[in-house]
Structure formats: structure tokens, C-alpha cells
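ugh finaly. both done.
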Amino acid sequence: MHVESSLVFVLAAVAVIVVVHRVAKVTGLPEAALLPLIGIGYSFLPGPNVGLDPEIILTFVLPPLLYSAALDSSLIAIRRNLRTVVSLSVVLVLLTALAIGFGFAWFVAGATLAAGIAVGAAVAPPDPVAALAVGRKVGLPPRLLTLIQGEGLLNDATALTILSVAIAAATGDGFSAPAALGLFLLDTAAGVAVGVAIALVVRLVSRKLGDDPMAANAVSLATPFCAYLLAEQVHGSGVLAVVVAGLIVGHHTPRTSSGASRLQTSAVWRLVDFLLEGLVFLLIGQQLPAVVRGLAQYETSTIVIAVAISVGVVLLLRPLWLVLTQLLPRSLHTRLGGEGPADERRLGGREVVALSWSGTRGVISLAAIFTLPLVTDSGEPFPDRDLLLFCTFVVVLVTLVGQGVTFAPLVRALGLRANESDQARLRNEARVASVEAALAALDDLQAEEHDDIQDHVIETVRVQLTTRVTRYQGRLDMLRDNVSPEIPVSAHYEAALHVRRVTLDAQREELLRWRDAGRLPDEGLRVLERELDHEERLLPDRKARR
């Protein structure tokens, strides 16, 4: 593809992503389901088609997406839910790969166990992008969002390790259970070590940079690639290194970076996610010609059986495993525990159903299966490679479109929704506590020796903080008066937010009139606009009520 053609293709892809994004916001349909369908439609049109290069996906696309997700994750919440996260991201991935592998060996004519485990490993790890997007939109409880996110962060390393072992067995290197376990442990240990090391370096560099948002953004964008490449160089799990680095950096960012750096870095990563995820989902649909090209050599019955095994295991094993882990004795189960806080209790029936239907597969599955070699060590074609590609594509399409479109209606039908009133109260209680800590610090300053100017400044700041804590306390009073779960935030609070937005818009319009009349230069306008933008950012989103 020529440079001009490549540029036209990229611009067209961005245009499609933007249009689909707007359509998704209006219709409520998930972008992750719409974009692959558009990609499939494009694949039938005349003109250039973009093939999926697994090296590009695994090296340039996967690390930033995983790192961004890890930055937004809660290390504390994942640690609190570690048993359930491990059961889904390690044990369930392994069981899925083995179940599909034995299914292929027993029921698919001519298929080998190693080839079956290879496709099983590729389709085993869910890609949580679609489920998280829908879950946040419909207000899924934070605990379930944490489990979906934690599972998606850790399962790729498990799947790719299993896939490498299966490929080694299928190409002639043979299979050894002890060697496979040793490889998995070595990859995991090296990946974790590299991730921790990179995170420590990033923390040190962030402290040195201080209030320099541009440099902080550059470091942030480079971090996932450094973690991935270094881990791969030492034969560790690059995926796990990226995730570990992101979790640690995200946990310590409030202490190591300035407010301006955090605001700008957050905006940059949102844009990166938006474009990369959109391009990835478009790319999935465009792989249809490649995956059906070699199916002519197979009997229709063979294709149907192989697809049925792949899709059936993916859809059925997940709910069975979730139910089983809730029924095992405490000493054996992987549930969250007995009585206690919300994050420590076992999963309820509705939560199991929602979590079962959140296992959408994505580009990682396709990138993994495209890494299968064309030939074995003996020079023979890799067994059933075209069939494995097709099975993976069908699993991805069924879960992305089928589960992606139906996940939101399912969550609404189950009545699973975060208690927004409780969350709003908690946030405002934290706001009050933080301002009270600031007032206590002012008392300490007041007790120290200082001049009249400093005394005047202290009193001025005290008045500002007192006004702020009064405002927060007023919000708390309104929220406490409205305890009905059907009305999570009081009408008075909503009205106050509306009035605040109206006043901010009026201030912007007045600044623009000053600029247009020549009374305020553009540079001054940008400074004042930035102040209003930061103030507006403190207000809750119209859909994410506080």
C-alpha cells in the first residue's frame, strides 16, 4: 500500500470510528460490536485490505492498551479480590484451553491435542474492553467492574504462555508437563520483576520531573513499550510486565506527579484508548477473507464440529466455573469469602450471571492465533492452521457482537446497579475530611512564628476552606436526606449542578465577548478558560452522578 493510500485508509478509519462512536452514544449499542461488523462489510469491498500482523499487535498495540487499563485499575481492589481474579485469569484460562484441546482431539477428524490446545489458549482470555464500556455505562457495581478489569489484565500472560507450549508441541519440540510449568513460572517471575523495576524507575523519574506535564506525558507513553521490550529480552512475560508496571505506577501517581501532569496524562491516554481500540475492532472484521481462504480443504461437518466445540466451551465453561467456585468449601473455593464488607462476600446469583456474560473475546485472541507458524520443524504444514484461524474468528465475532449487544439489557434485567447515593456520600465525606485536614494544617501554621502578611494569608485561606467544607457538608446533608435507591441523588443536588454549569457557560461567553471586542488578548483568554475548564472538571459528568 502506497503512502498516500495508507494515509487515506487511516483517515477513513478515524472517520468511521468517530461516526460509530456518535451512533453508539445515541443508540446505546457498544462500539466494540458495531466496528467489527463494519470491518466485515469493508472486507467484501474492492480495494486494499489490512492484514493483521501479530508482531505489530503484540508489540505496538497491546502494551499501551493494557498499560492504560492498568493505570485506571485499583491495585487495592485487585489485591482484595485476588483469589477470584486468579481463578478467572489463570485457572479458567487453563481449563478452557484444555477442554477445547481434548474436544478437538476426540471429535474433530485429524486434529491433534496440541493444535486444539493452541486454539483453546487463543480464545481463552476475555478482552474486557467491550464489557467494561457497557458496564460503566449501565452503572455496574464497582466490585464486578474490578473483577472484569482484573481478569482482563492478567489472563493474557497465561494464555500466551500456554499457546507457546502448545506450538512447541505441535511443531515437533514435544510436550513436557514439568517443562511447561517451569516455563510458565519463569515467564511469570521475570515479567513481574521487570514490571516492578520499570515502575520504580518511572516513580523516580516522575519525582525528578516535578511540574512538567509534557515530559511526564512522554515518559508515560514510553513506559509500556519499555516494560514489554525489556521483559521479552529476558524471556519473561511482556504482557505481565506492562500490567504490573501500570498497576504500581497508577497506585503511586497521586504522590509522584503534579495535578497538571495528571490531567494532561489522563486526557492523552483517553485519546490513545479511543483510537487504538477503534482501529483494533475495525481490524478484527477485516480478517474475514484471510480466515476463510483455506477452509475449502475441510468437510463441512468438520468445520461445524470444530466451531461448535470452540464456541460451546467458551460460553458454557465460564458460568459453570463461576458457579462451582461459589459452592466449594471455604478451604478450597476461590470466592471472595464469607461475611464481611461488600468486597469480601461471595458472589450472588445475579452477579454470577452478569460476570458469566462479560467474557467477550477480542484482538488478543486473533493476534495470538495468527502467531501460529505455517510449517512445523519437519517442514510439514502446521496441522489445521486454517481451521484454527476460522474457529478463533467465529468465537471473537460471536462474543463481541452477541454478548456485547446483549450485555447491557442483561445487566438492566438483572437489576444490577451501583448504589450511586452511597458512592456520592462517600466521595463527599472524603472531600470534607480532606478540607478538615487542610484546616488543621493551617492551625499548625498559625501556631508557628510568622509576620502580619502571612497571618493575613492564613486567614484568607481559612475562609476559603471553611466555605468549601460548608458546601461539601451541604451536599452530604442533601444526599443523606435522599436514601431511596430509586432516587440515588437528590433533585436539589441535580438542580445545583445544573445552575453551576449555567454560570460557567455564562462566564465563558462573557470572556469571549471581551476577546471579540479586543479587550482581552487570546493568550489571556486561554488562561482564564483553562481556569473555568478545571472548575468544570470538578463537577460530575451528566451521566456519572455524584
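ok and the 2nd:
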Amino acid sequence: MEKQSFEELMEDLEIIELKKGRIFEGKVFEIDNDGIWVALEGSPGDVFVTQDELLRSKRDYKIGDLITIKITKVNDAEGLHLASEKKAVWQKLFNDIKEGENYKAVFKERVKNGYTVLIEGVVKAFLPGSLSLLKIYEDMPSEEVGVKVISKKGRNIVVSRKDYIEEKIEVFFGNYKKGMLVEGIVEEVKDFGAFVRLSDYVTAFLPKNEVSWNSRMDLKEFLKIGKKIKAIIVDIDEKDKKINLSIKQLKDDPWETIEVKYPIDSVVNGTVTKIFPFGFTVEIEEGIEGLVHESQIFWGRRGRIEDVVKVGDVVKVKVLDIDKENRKMNLSYKLAMGDPWENIEEKYNEGIVVKGTVEKILENGAIIKLEEGVTGFLHVSELSWNFIDNISNYLKEGSNVKVKILSVDKDNRKMRLSIRKALENPWKKVIREVQPGDIVKGKIAKFVDKGAIVLVDKHNVEAYLPSSKASFDSKNVREIFEIGEEVEVKVLEINLENENKRGNMVVSAVNLENFEGKEAEDILKDLEK
């Protein structure tokens, strides 16, 4: 074996000698209450690192972890050597820091004329207030920020946040050009447009008229804060550092080929977007919207547009005309649906019973809607087999009813309807079951000039009680009975001239055992008057 020279022996001893300030790597071999023990590589010694000199909590270290430390104290007498992980990392990082390079830093405290920051959370540096991009009243950021080292003299390092960001902005504007596709996050939405963050340091503007080909689009509904979007750069000003974006230019202008896609007289599907007093608008596709005028909604009498369509409904419409230059389109709802009166006899024959909805109450009856564009007239006399004084007490607008079709006038778009004839005539049963002289029960329904009307139980028909037959003591029926009062009466006369008409019944509330038939005839004549 070759003999080492004296100089080589001294060099080997230097390698393994523990000296204050030297940096070693070592493995954690024990963890106690105050810190960790580290066995150094290339040296027979062990060192102790207190919690204060560790980068992390001692609970985060495991036996066998390899860490870098710097010797801070050598005690040969006691054999206890102290070291610091923080100082080792600081030394290495400090040595690596160079002027003109960028680093991450955290704010430590506010000092005179600026701030103290820690580069990579370890090396202290000074950030002048003029280069911090912070107003005097603003709080220090809690998260990491980017900084550029603008001076390093001895242990004094000066950094700039402003220079760091300006460099990043320059790089961005150097890499992006007009016409490029970019992706960003919506930061703020205004009535005139939106601001979109393209990077941590560059925000672009998206004008409202560049969001969609649909000019009536609700900007705040379409763009939500935090939404990720793709857009095209339509204008970039490198000098003033401004960028304008467009989403709609990702698609071709739909009006350029509108005559090809939606020729006149074609029937298309669309979504109802708005309802006006004079009609409603329909969006056929994004950017293409047309108007359905009220004259193109109803085949018959004009009704409430809201009863026909609602915002959000998908409807069929027919294209009437296109004004490409002014981006306008007229549509027809009724033509797309077809004229319901064209083949009316196929659905609504005279004599059939159908369902309908009360559309409007009139003084002499009601308009009943059978379907869109098809209505009929219900005269007050066709409401009930009983007499109706006030139609509003019997029907309500919007209520559903069953009606019998009495007649259909296709040429004039008219139809006569009946509710009472949709039901069996109750007088047919009354005639079979009730005879003159029978006693029936009922309630006083209303008063008339010469008596009262009694609603007969079981049969739901009206009988006439003359005042003269209400009591022997009084000729004023209102002094004897009250509305709703239950009564027991004797049938004086009952007849049904025609099963399609109402019958007549005259009753008496007094003892009529000796009542003459001639008097009943007189009472009926009075009733007819």
C-alpha cells in the first residue's frame, strides 16, 4: 500500500474534522422532546439540532431522513455538538441567489421605506415600498409573491416586485398575438363587458358585443365570475399593455348563411325569449332571433299571449321574411300550427260533448276555448237547467267545463255551445218521480217579484213558490222565509213541454187539500209573465 504524504493525511483529517460553520449531510437517527439527532456522513460525530433550528416541526421528520445541516457549536469536552438546518439551507440559498434572477418570497414585516421579505421563506431581503406595488394603506399579501433581485452586496439583498411583474407582462405580450386562441377566468362582469384574467399579471377586456352573436343575450347570465372561457384575441396593444377578446368570433356569423339554413316558408323550432304586448320573440339558434307579431299568433279573436306561450317554451314557427342587412326576421306561430278551422268538422261535430276552458265572461254568456284558435259562444240560457241571474256566480275565467256543440259555422268561425245540454235534463227524471200533490223538500234559493224559488232536494231543479201560497197570514214571502231556509212544500202543478227544455213546478207551503186546479193554472200564467 502506498504511503500517504503528510499533506494528504492532513487533508483527510480536515474532511472529518467538525468545525463551526462547516456544512454536512446526515441521517436522522433519533427524535427527542427538544429536537433531533443527526449522524453525519463523512464524519464520526453526531450533532443535535434543536426545534428552533429545524425547518419544520420535529414531528414531520422520520428516522433515516437525510438532511443538510451547518455546525454551530463544537464541544469536544462534553461531546455535544450543535447544528442548524435553517442556517445550512440559508447559506446554500444565499450563495445561489444572483442579481437579475426571479424568486418566490413572503412578506415578513413593514419597515421604514418598505418591507422585509424572505426569499424562498428563508433569506431576508429588503423590498422598497416604491417597488412593492402596494398602496400605503394596503395589507401585506399573505401568499407568496414573485420578486426580482436587483441588488446583492454582502449580506444585503434588495428585491423588486414591480420589476418581476413587468418582466412577466413583457414575456406575455411577446408570446401572444392578434388572432390567437386564449383561455382565461372571468374576474368581473359589467353591463358593458367583462374582465378576463389570462395570467397572474395580465387581464383582458371582453366587450359585450363580442360575447355572442345574440345581441339580446343577458351578459351576467352568460358570464359568471370564476367561469373558465376560451376566446380569440381581436386587439393587442403592446405599448399600453391592453388586450381585447371575442367569444363570438369563435363561431361564424349565423346571419351570413341564414337564407340557406332557414329559407322563407320553412318551419323551424325555436325558444320563446321574450313576450311583449304586441307579440313575442323566438331564438332559432344563438344569434338568430325573430319576431312573432300578435297578428301571427291567433286564428280567432285575440287573446292573452301569455296563455299561448311562456318564456322558455320550445315552439314551431314559420319563416315569413328575412331582413339580413338589419338582422331581422318575421315569424308566424299560427301558420306553423295550421288553421284549426280548416278541418273543423273532423274534430267538432254538432251534438258531441267536448272539454273546454272558460276564456272570457260576458253579460249574456261566455267564450269557451276548445283549443288554440277554436272558441265557441255559450249563451247564459245554456248554462244550467235552472235559471241563472248572474253568470259570474256560475262560471269563472280559467275554469274547465264540459260543453255540447249545438252548431258550427265554419265560414264565420263561430260555434254555439251548451253546458246544460252536455248533461241529462233533470226534468225528465222529475216528471217520472214527482206528481201533483206530492210533498217535496228543498231550500229557499232566491226571491223573485211575486214569490220565491225553491231548490228541490234530490232533483236539483227549481220550483216556484208564489207569495200567495207561502202563508195564510202574509202575502210577502220575504217576511216568512230566509234565503237558505229549509222548507217542505206540496207540488201544485208540474209539467215538461219538451225534453230539451226546462220544466215547470209550482209548490205551496200551506195546506192545499181543497185547492182548485183552476188556481194552479192562474199561478202558472203569472209565472210565465
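summary for the 2nd one i guess: The chain has six domains: 6-92, 99-166, 176-250, 254-337, 344-422, 426-528.
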